Amino acid sequence: MVGPIRLVALAPRTEWKLANGLCVVLVSDQRAPLVSASIAVQGGESALPAEDAGLAAAMAELLTDGTATKTSKQISDAAELFGGSLVGEATPDAFVVEASALSDKAEAMFSLLAEVVRAPSFPAAEVALRKANMREELSADRAESDFLASVVFYKKVFAGHPYAVTAPTNESIERITRDRVVAAHQRLFTPRGSVLLLVGDIGLAQAQAAAQKHFGSWKGGAPAADAPAVLTPRTERTVYLLDRPQSSQVSYVLGNLAVREDNPAYFDLLVLNGVLGGSFSSRLVRDIRETKGYTYNISSRLEHRRTGSLIRIRTPVRTEVAGDALRDILGHLNGIRDSEPSAEEVAQAKAYLAGSFARRMETQEGLAEALLHQKLLRLPADFYDTYVDRVSAVTPASARKAAQTFLRPDEMTVVAVGDAAKLKGTLSTFTKKPVVSVGVDGD
Question: Which pTM was predicted?
Fold first, then answer.
């Protein structure tokens, strides 16, 4: 029996802009003596050409490896002194630098955050070390079938689009130089279009003063342009195969383009995904994992970028059941399109989504992550305030309609990584055209 859905009231937010165009968002939360600050700069991986794959990630990590006045170790030591952390990363649509601190050390955190964002020095030795580490990381990643399957999947489902590139190549790593990193930072890091999100034990007056003091004099040009709209979806299923001779399992990733979170039917699709493979009680888990034992891990999920979204199913299965597993997965996709999910399935999915959301919003980290996502993807200001209500409004009929509209098994991109000698004949039965062989970079 599914219990009542718990309502969630998010803390009020205050938002303002500095004269240089930097958007500041504050959520005061005095439950713990902690403050987190996140700077999101528009652009990210999609702002750089495919031949520079990995440059965005390298730059984001190198931000904390040196400034005009501090070495990498001094930056790390300073973060420890204010009882928190400082880390940079590149996402498809933004560069994000996150810091946290004990609230009585917030001023030191703001100072260090501003220094690494505005004035990193990108020491040549650190750039060389990052490149060496990237080579080792890429080699280790390519030993994992799931990594290879994901690289190919995004390369094909986002074919010809900047979102298609999700991993560096040996060649693109070699192209990284200090001059290229510096040039990318100078071009992309600008207050216009950027967001400073503050969450925690900090009041409005303190937040306004800190933002102005540390970021008010930040200057820069126009922000990076949005990634272009994602291309038209496929009209037929295509199967891609990456050969791993003598592999005892095959890693599958399959899916198709979907809709943004601000689409009127998004929450119907979200709940539908919960019924399909988005929770432990979902159909794919109960059948493919529990009943048939084809795998220990299978799931479906919705993923979002600013100008493109998709639904993705991922699972590793034993080679000897590769055909049966794929046939059954596609069978579930067709089945959930052909008839309404039961009221109990929908109720379970809604309870799981609402409960997960409530737990996530109870933490500073979860709240900050959600609000930054809302700003970066330009979702409505009340998107998370009305989240539970819109989950609750989904019905079996509306979930089925979402399946019929957005689940397209006959048009899906299907990627398999495994022993081609054992798989190619089987996989050919799932496509009207020849299975396409690809390499480790998805080409």
Answer: 0.94
